[in-house]
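Ligand: phosphoric acid mono(formamide)ester. Inputs:
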Amino acid sequence: MRNLLSIEEVDRDAMEAILGRAESFAEVGRRDIKKVPTLRGRTVVTLFYESSTRTQSSFELAAKRLSADLVSVKAAGSSVDKGESLKDTVATLSAYDPAAIVIRHPYAGAAQMVAGWTGAAVVNAGDGKHEHPSQALLDVYALRRRLGSLEGRRIWIVGDVLHSRVARSNLIAFRRMGAAVTLCGPPTLIPRGIEELGCEVTYSLDGLEEADVVYALRMQRERMSGSFVPSLREYAANFQIDTRRLGPRQLLMHPGPVNRGVEISGEAIDSPQSLIGEQVAAGLVVRMAILYEILAGQPERPAAFGDGPAAAEAAAPTIGQPA
Ligand code: CP
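Predicted complex:
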């Protein structure tokens, strides 16, 4: 395994390998010294062109717990502000010979492009509305710890599906693990034709009681160029997940950050059915497992400034493909 660009490329066996590895890192996390030497002497770069709390902090802590050297770059405040392109930024950081670059970028396909410009392994930490594969893996991990298996479980993903990379990655991952997925939201926030990915679609919360798991999505106002709902108040009236709508046997998830009182009520967030804190905790061990699966056992490959796409391609089988 070399890159993690899309959950589509991660077959069930590869997912099981990452989830199993994450279990072993959870055990390491219960020790007094929570560090293993696996990536000693290797460098992980995090390169974030969009805001993040959970993904960036957990990848960085994961790299440190694996004893890697860490270079943390946020586009804001870097030479991106002076007009440096993504390609030149990646070439610059590749000169440090990193083992992996973890990239978040507002454009769909950015991580794939980066993989063509560097000899480092590339992890997609969210590319526009396209994919957030590590989120899908950590959500499967957190759910399996509660439910044992996702086989035959019914999962409703509710809210702003249109702007959500999490919805797309999670739909694929949940189905791959045997769950049945329903997407629910106002018609303006559900992409046309998404049923082709093998899910049900509904435009109201009627029937929500059948769900074993309710996965609420953030209203992504920063990605909305127009008005997709008449008002947030009206959206909340029709789609907010609160303790009145959530039955006692149902589990509640949200990728964070949460808009309290919009897509989800404060009471529901703090209820015992909420897995939101467990999702964040899962992020650390699953991202340790991702870095481990991508990097451990891979021969170190010296990269040079200006390494071209051909060299990068030769070094870049992805998770789910033979290394
Ligand atoms: N879920 C998620 O990606 O959160 P951050 O934006 O805080 O990383």
